[in-house]
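Worked example 3 (structure in, sequence out).
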C-alpha cells in the first residue's frame, strides 16, 4: 500500500503510534478502550499533572498483559508528536453542571493555543482528533492554529450522540443497536438534530415504521421527540449524576481511531470541514464522513427533509456565530 497523503500531497506519518493529550476521565476511558482493542503499538500520554500521568500510565500498563497485545504505554512529551500517527486531544476545561458546551469556548481556545503551538513545533504531520468541548468549534480552532490540511483535522462530532440515539431506538424497537441506521447531525450540543427521513431499522425505513405505529399510538411521534431530547441532554444528566461522561466518549474515540488507523473507508458522523455541503462552508460540523488512513476521504451530504434541513441550517449558523467570536475565521 502506498503511503497516505494529505491535501498538499505530503506523506502522512505512518504507523499506529498515538499521543493522548489529557489524562482525565475521558482520556483514560479512551486509552483503556484503545489498549483492549489493540489499536496501537505505542500510546504516549501528556498531561500537566505529571504525577497523575505517571499513575495512569502505570495502571494502564498493568492491564496490557490481559489485552493479548504487546503495547507500550509511556509518559509522553511533545517530542512524541514528531512520529505520532494520531493525536487525540482530550485536554481543556471540563463542562460544569448547568453549563452548555458553547460556554466553554473562550477558556479552551487559550488552552489549545498553547498545546497546538508545541505540537507543531515538533513537526507533527499525522491525523489530529479533537474531543474537547465545544468540539466543533475547537476542531475548527485546531485546524487554524496548526495549519494542517483539513482532512487531517477531525472532531468527535456526533458519533457519541448517534450511539445514544441508536441505543434509545433499540430499546423502543427491541432490536440490537447495530440493526438501526439513523444519525444525529449538526452541532454536538443543543442545536443538533436526528435524521429520521433517511433512517432504517433492519432495512425497513424508519419513517414507515413510525407511520405504522401511529395507527395504534397517535402519540408515537411525540414519544420519539421526547426520546431525542433524552438523547441530546444525556450528557447533562450524566454529569449531574457522576460529574463527567467518560465511557461513551472513550469508546466513540476508539471507534474513530480504528476507522483511521485500519484504513476502513467507513462513514462516521464526525465533525468535519464542510465545503458547500448543506449550502455551508468554512465550519466544522457533525455529518457522516468517510474516514481512512488519510483522515477525511469525503463528507457525505444526507438528503434531508425540509424540516431537517432547516434545523441543520440553524445549527450551522449557531456554530458560525461562535466560530467568528474566536477571531480565527478568514
Amino acid at each position: 500500500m502506498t503511503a497516505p497523503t494529505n491535501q498538499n500531497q505530503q506523506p502522512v506519518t505512518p504507523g499506529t503510534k498515538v499521543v493522548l493529550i489529557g489524562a482525565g476521565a475521558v482520556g483514560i476511558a479512551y486509552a483503556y478502550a484503545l489498549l483492549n482493542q489493540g489499536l496501537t503499538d505505542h500510546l504516549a500520554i501528556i498531561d500537566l499533572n505529571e504525577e497523575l500521568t505517571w499513575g495512569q500510565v502505570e495502571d494502564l500498563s498493568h492491564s496490557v498483559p490481559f489485552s493479548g497485545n504487546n503495547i507500550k504505554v509511556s509518559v509522553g512529551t511533545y517530542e512524541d508528536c514528531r512520529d505520532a500517527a494520531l493525536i487525540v486531544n482530550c485536554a481543556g476545561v471540563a463542562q460544569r453542571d448547568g453549563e452548555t458546551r458553547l460556554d466553554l469556548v473562550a477558556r479552551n481556545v487559550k488552552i489549545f493555543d498553547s498545546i497546538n503551538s508545541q505540537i507543531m513545533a515538533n513537526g507533527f504531520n499525522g491525523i489530529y482528533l479533537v474531543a474537547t468541548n465545544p468540539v466543533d468549534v475547537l476542531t475548527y480552532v485546531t485546524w487554524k492554529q496548526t495549519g494542517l490540511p483539513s482532512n487531517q483535522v477531525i472532531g468527535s462530532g456526533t458519533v457519541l450522540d448517534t450511539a445514544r440515539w441508536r441505543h434509545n431506538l433499540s430499546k423502543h424497537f427491541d432490536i440490537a443497536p447495530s440493526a438501526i441506521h439513523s444519525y444525529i447531525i449538526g452541532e454536538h450540543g443543543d442545536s443538533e438534530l436526528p435524521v429520521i427521513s433517511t433512517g432504517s431499522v433492519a432495512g425497513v425505513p424508519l419513517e414507515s415504521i413510525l407511520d405504522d405505529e401511529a395507527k395504534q399510538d397517535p402519540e408515537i411521534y411525540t414519544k420519539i421527540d421526547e426520546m431525542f431530547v433524552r438523547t441530546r441532554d444525556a450528557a447533562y444528566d450524566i454529569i449531574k449524576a457522576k460529574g463527567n461522561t467518560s465511557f461513551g466518549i472513550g469508546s466513540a474515540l476508539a471507534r474513530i481511531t480504528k476507522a483511521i488507523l485500519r484504513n476502513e473507508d467507513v462513514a462516521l458522523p464526525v465533525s468535519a470541514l464542510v465545503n458547500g455541503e448543506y449550502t455551508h462552508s468554512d465550519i466544522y460540523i457533525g455529518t457522516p464522513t468517510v474516514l481512512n488512513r488519510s483522515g477525511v476521504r469525503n463528507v457525505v451530504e444526507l438528503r434531508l427533509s425540509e424540516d431537517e434541513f432547516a434545523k441543520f441550517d440553524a445549527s450551522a449558523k449557531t456554530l458560525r456565530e461562535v466560530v467568528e467570536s474566536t477571531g480565527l475565521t478568514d
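Notes: The mean pLDDT is 94. Residues 306-325 form the longest helix (20 residues).
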